[in-house]
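PROTEIN FOLDING TASK:
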Amino acid sequence: MRLVKTTLPLLLAAGALMAPATASARAPEASASGGDVVVLTYPSLVSTRVKRTERALERATKQLESDRTAKAVRSLKVVRRQMSSAWRGARYIIRTTPPPPAEEARVSGDGPTGPSYASPADSAFAVLTLQHDVAAAMVQLVDGSRGRALSALSTTLYLALDRRDGAIQDIRALAPPVSPDAEDARARARASGGGPVVAGFDTVMPNVAGQLDDELQAIDGTRTDAEDLSAGGRRVLTKAEPQVLRTRQTVNASWPPVPAED
């Protein structure tokens, strides 16, 4: 599998694309003991598509802000296409990557000594975070949008929500269960402070709940405080809210929050 080194600006760079409303839901750089910052090397099958989506989303935002509706509509079409493609890449990685041996749940030594490759769970979470950021951006761009612009925003918002629900179902179906040996190895790694712990779905998926809470806050805040929210824009937000709530229930039921460490 070809891999490229990337910091995935969407996930790792401070003050990346989106507004402060999504900052609290940023994905961690990596799970590492001892406070080490680990820059992950993501598969190009995911990273290239994530970055294409980011660039298109940034273009669309600027175009909407400058009333270039036709260009924004085309950019949002690219957002939808590349966001969907990013999950197909992540799903392929989940489906084809064998689970690591239990002993590989820990990197020995005082810290990382070479490239830290993203696990399938890391790659999946990168795309889930992309879907979240697209959805959160659409929610806030609804304020002041009408006509073709609002139609493109609503289509993109609902696609992001639908693709995320599909991704969660894929993960539930395809992700290998955590073996007791692997869980014990992770626990020993955290306790010893010897190196970064390889992320699994059981450790990354609880973070999705925070992203969903952020979207619910953005929906409610936009409906409450928006200065130019049309009746159509309000309907878009009202329709999206129950789907986000159902997704949060699914995530909390399937991946309960990880207990805080002592």
Summary: The beta strands are 3-5, 40-43, 116-117. Residues 69-96 form the longest helix (28 residues). Residues 24 and 214 are 8 Å apart (CA to CA).
